[in-house]
Every structure is written in C-alpha cells, then in structure tokens.
Amino acid sequence: MYDYLIAGAGLFGAVFAHEAAARGKTCLVIDKRPHIAGNIYTETINGVIVHKYGAHIFHTNDKTVWDYINRFAEFNNYINSPIARYKDELYNLPFNMNTFNKMWGVKTPAEAMAVIEKQRAEAGGAGGGAIGVTEPKNLEEQALFLVGRDIYEKLIKGYTEKQWGMECTELPAFIIKRLPLRFIYDNNYFNDRYQGVPVGGYTRIVEKLLSDSEVKLNTDYVDFSKKNERIAEKIVYTGAIDEFFGYCHGALEYRSLRFETEEFAEENHQGAAVVNYTDRSVPYTRVIEHKHFEFGGQPNTVVTREYPVAWKKGLEPYYPVNNEKNNALYLKYKEMADKRPDVIFGGRLGRYRYYDMDTVIAKALDVEKSEL
Ligand code: UDP
C-alpha cells in the first residue's frame, strides 16, 4: 500500500512525487512508456542531446518555479530565436522589427505600425468587418488584427493549418497570442524573464525528481489499476482525462506528432536550433537541429523533422485542441473528476490545457501544497 499511485512519469507526476516523498509519503509512479520524463524526455545520440518528443525550451516569469527547477539542473543561456522559412524567404521570429524590415523594407517602428494598420483596415473591409472592433472570434481574425495580411499569409496561415489540421477560422484566437509581437529589433521568442535549456538534458531532472519514489515502466494505468485496486490511498492521474473515464462522453480531440530523425556527418546543418516551415506545401512544421540548444561543437549533428498528424486512439496525444466544442466536452469530464476526491488530475492531458512546462510545475506545487 502506497500513499500515492502516480500515473505518468512526466513533469507533473515527477514534481508531485518529489514533493510528496520529501514529506515522507510513499509514491509508486507508473508509466506506459519504456522511459521516464514523458514528452520532455531527452536521449543522447552520438554525443548530441536529442529532444525526442519535440523541442523544449524552458521559460518562465515565475521566480519560484525558476528557483525550483534550478535545484535539479544547471540551465544554459540558450535563447530561442527560431527562423521562419516561407518558400525561399527567411524571416526572424517572433514578429518583430527584423521580421517587418525583411517583409516590407520598413526601418522604424512607426513605418511598421503604419503598414500593419493599413492591412488591418483592408482586412476589416474585405469580409472581416469585425477586425479590431470587437473581440477576435478566431485565430485568423486575431492574426490579421495583430500583424496584418502579409505576415498572416506567409508566416502564420500555412504553419497553423498544418499544425492543427484545421482552418485558422476554426481555431481559437488564444493560440496565436502565445507569440510575442514587438516593435523592437529583438528575436527572443519568449517574453519571460528566465529562459534556458538544462545542461545534460531534461531526463536527468526527472530522474532526480523521482529518486525517492518507486518507478514501474511499461505499465499502463488502465490494466494496472484493475489488477491493483487498493494499492494506494490516492491516485495522481496525468494521462488523458477522457481515457480515464472510458471516453464515456466521447473522445476529446488532440493533435499528434510524428518525428523523423536523421544524423549528418557535418558540423552545422541549418545554422539554427529551430527552423519553422511556414509554407503549407512542406509537410513538416519544424526542423530541429538539437546541438544548437547546447552550443554543441561535435563534428556530427542530429536533425529532427516534426510532422503534425491527426490523433486517433493508440497514438500519443500532444496538444489539446481547445476549441469550444472540446472545451464543452472537457467540462463534462471535469464534472466527473470533481466527484472523485480520490483522484488528482494534472498536466496537459489530465487538465486538457495547452500548458507550458513552467505552468505544469507551478500547478504540481500548488496541488501538492493543498494536498499535504
Ligand atoms: N505559429 C505560426 N507560425 C510560426 C510559429 C507559430 O503561425 O512560425 C502559430 C501556430 O498557430 C502555433 C502557435 O503559433 O500553433 C503557437 O506556436 P508555439 O511555437 O508556441 O507552439 P509549440 O512550440 O507549443 O508547438
């Protein structure tokens, strides 16, 4: 008998386990995968630390979270500044004066704002009457309002529709608000005060977090809990909430990813850690050259192409699709979850929220505090 059975050895489960163990609680952490760390899992391939489930750059404004994670790793000073490639044109991201200069030749913030203002007005006139007047109803309206038609067409529309498998008019506006928009020459993808990539990779952090818990890999929660009904006082569940309840109200939608990783016998393949392919005709969204996350000087390099794919049962869910329909469905599951004081739901899948790593840590610390 354990105090907690924790389903999922990702960031939420591991932070919770660490805090619970520190307070003398016993935890059994299970994960269906053959490794810990969930989607922040990193693995070394010929001397290069590879982000196996997509690029993870840690960034936060929360000093408590930053101090907490720094107890388990040293962070380097990597600043994410991806390149967007549209056909043969290259642009800096996020949308800033470098992007505007390349796109329009403008040199001052006032010139850039004037172009955006003009395109915003045109978009408003051409069927998008509400743009800038009422709250944007969808991602397309939001993007046109923020950056105008040219940037929307070249850098947002194709990428977003590949990423989500839906039209921008069907997607919630908040997704594009994740990206900063600035009228200074600054290619930092995030606005947060603290940023970096852990030296040695993320898996080591999770190893440390789980060092006082028992861990069982290759163990699926559904099977395991049937066979071990009374193994713990309480359950911390970080899998998909609809799966937990047997999809009784229907399946929530997720977006999945497929990765193709290739090694090259060259030192520097693309000159950046992250290149976004924003043209819809290219089937992948991003190409990651992992060594640049850690300023690697190896003679070889490892590169991963990221292909968004439709999620279906059996595939890994990566992103919740937080449109109105799914959010309403989630609320039905949330109602059921609220009637289960024996289960704590956490993480991106347990809460059906597009959380970043720092929020996951903050939530795990909060839950743990109120719990213990
Ligand atoms: N996005 C875009 N063009 C880009 C990068 C991002 O239109 O070159 C949009 C797209 O809709 C994406 C959203 O911004 O889903 C959030 O991007 P972010 O990089 O935060 O996504 P994540 O790293 O979480 O996959």
Summarize the structure.
This protein is an alpha/beta fold and 372 residues long. 33% of the residues lie in helices and 20% in strands.
Descriptive terms for the model:
seven-stranded mixed β-sheet, 372 residues, binds uridine-5'-diphosphate, Rossmann fold, alpha/beta, 16 strands, 20% strand, five-stranded parallel β-sheet
Q: Overview of this structure, please?
A:
- It is a single chain.
- Helix content is about 35%, strand content about 20%.
- The protein has helices at about 10-20, 65-70, 95-105, 110-125, 140-165, 200-210, 220-225, 240-245, 325-340, 345-350, 355-370, and strands at about 1-5, 25-30, 40-45, 50, 60, 85, 90, 195, 215, 230-235, 255-265, 275, 285-290, 300-310, 320, 345.
- A hairpin with a 2-residue loop joins β6 (about 85) and β7 (about 90).
- α1 (about 10-20) runs parallel beside α6.
- The longest helix is centred in the middle third of the chain and has 26 residues, at about 140-165.
- The radius of gyration is 22 Å and the shape is globular.
- Bound molecules: uridine-5'-diphosphate.
- The site of uridine-5'-diphosphate has 13 residues, from α5.
- Uridine-5'-diphosphate binds near residues 93, 159, 175, 176 and 178.
